[in-house]
Design a protein that fits this description.
This protein is α/β, with parallel strands linked by helices. Helix content is 36%, strand content 13%. It is built from 13 helices and 13 strands. Helix 5 crosses helix 6 and helix 10 packs parallel to helix 12. The longest helix is centred in the last third of the chain and has 21 residues. It is globular. The C terminus is likely disordered. The site of pyridoxal-5'-phosphate has 13 residues, from helix 5 and helix 6.
């Protein structure tokens, strides 16, 4: 994008004082791109690339099948899980990296239901991410209404709906559209007071701000490896199961990697102890290696400081937006109070799709969510204050020039059909 106008001194000073300024060099960001979409797909890091190349060249190529033993490939889900554990406030032995968020949700939702006798209702909210709703619907259709009923309420009814009839409260902490953030501690406590268990989806939380799952007594959680954790497209997800439930819980996907002794090749399933029982099939070694490398970027990161920078980036963005008269057509739908917000800002605009298209053409990568929402993801490890300033400048230019009204963008919108929810590239 055009970078001819000098960055104002106040913005440059914020970058100058940024304790994460050095972190950006650990990322392989393309030149001339302002990337505000790390909430959807984190960028490549040098560490992920190196670990992936090593796994290919030194491990797979040299040692072939010997790699399973020599390089501990079978242990990767637990090893990588332990690296994520620090980021979510979990002590050892409760976190595994495997499969996708959707699959892991199926496993933990079923496990949570298996621990509840006499209660069958799963409470969630209508605004939940579609895959979470679909997984719950699939569970209901598989088990039948007698064993799994869904109660799907609106956000404002949520708190009052947590009562003795609920078996499992299943929520996503940060709303993918608005960025609204639930208080896990309060809702978990409320659920436990009425005897319900909780399943939290941390897709837009892990790696974005501190979490304290053990302290908050969370029962189960799942999350995404390719968003704030930068594990690469389709990276393995993670799964957390509190140790106090390990003995009694059952998860329905009996695979050999979740067997107590997979290499005895026994005829009957005997679940492994601990969180290992959530493993199903052969680990995705290369994807796990990339995620393992990417996670090392967090090794010396203080998540409280990370969160502070995210809040400051957001405050800067909101202030710059409100200073520009022509940008008052953009309507902020994220909470203004940082405590109620994840690490993104979302604005609506009647031509959101076309505006997103033009912004991306200008080198400012954001994304669009139907019907009228533009998301700006804030990822403090590599986002500079000057990126925020340039993004607002670019947006101002797009709006004032009214370029988004051109026929080509409208035509795209008409033709986009089922692809509307996907990031426009
Ligand atoms: C991104 C996201 C997912 C992704 O699920 P996959 O199975 O990894 O595709 C799930 N839930 C939420 C809330 C998400 O934001």
């Amino acid at each position: 994008m055009k970078q001819t106008i000098p960055v104002p001194a106040a913005i440059a000073e914020l970058d100058h004082q940024d304790s994460f300024a050095g972190k950006r060099s650990e990322f392989r960001l393309p030149a001339d791109t302002i990337y505000l979409n790390g909430n959807s797909l984190g960028p490549l890091t040098f560490a992920a690339q190196e670990r992936l190349v090593e796994a290919c060249k030194q491990e797979w190529r040299q040692d072939l099948i010997g790699g399973w033993n020599k390089h501990g490939w079978l242990d990767l889900p637990i090893q990588v899980g332990e690296k994520i554990a620090r980021l979510i406030g979990a002590k050892t032995g409760q976190t595994v990296a495997c499969d996708s968020t959707s699959l892991n949700l199926f496993k933990v939702l079923s496990a949570a239901l298996s621990l509840q006798s006499g209660r069958t209702t799963v409470l969630t909210q209508e605004e939940n991410f579609p895959t979470d709703l679909y997984i719950a619907q699939g569970m209901r259709d598989l088990l039948g209404e007698h064993h799994c009923k869904l109660k799907n309420v609106q956000a404002q009814e949520l708190s009052d709906s947590i009562d003795e009839s609920i078996a499992v409260l299943m929520l996503t902490q940060v709303d993918f559209r608005s960025g609204y953030k639930h208080d896990i501690e309060i809702l978990t406590k409320k659920a436990h007071e009425v005897g319900a268990l909780v399943v939290w989806d941390l897709a837009h939380s892990a790696g974005a701000f501190p979490l304290d799952l053990d302290k908050w007594q969370v029962d189960f959680a799942v999350g995404c490896g390719y968003k704030y954790l930068n594990g690469g497209p389709g990276a393995p997800a993670f799964l957390y199961a509190a140790e106090r439930h390990h003995k009694l819980l059952r998860q329905p996907l009996y695979g050999w990697m979740g067997h107590a002794q997979p290499f005895l090749f026994e005829r009957n399933y005997v679940a492994a102890s601990g969180v290992q029982k959530f493993s199903v099939g052969t680990p995705n070694v290369l994807s796990l290696a990339a995620l393992q490398g990417a996670l090392s970027v967090f090794d010396n990161v203080d998540l409280h400081a990370l969160r502070e920078k995210s809040n400051r980036l957001a405050a800067t963005f909101m202030r710059l937006m409100s200073d520009v008269e022509s940008l008052q057509c953009m309507n902020l739908i994220s909470p203004i109070d940082a405590a109620q917000r994840g690490s993104q800002l979302s604005y609506t605009h009647p031509y959101a799709y076309a505006v997103t298209r033009v912004l991306i053409e200008q080198g400012v990568v954001v994304d669009y969510r139907a019907p009228d929402c533009i998301r700006f993801g804030l990822t403090p490890l590599y986002t500079r204050y000057m990126d925020i300033w340039r993004a607002v400048e670019a947006l101002k230019e797009v709006i004032e020039s009214r370029r988004f009204e051109r026929a080509q963008y409208q035509a795209d919108y008409q033709n986009a059909g089922s692809k509307l929810r996907i990031t426009v590239t």
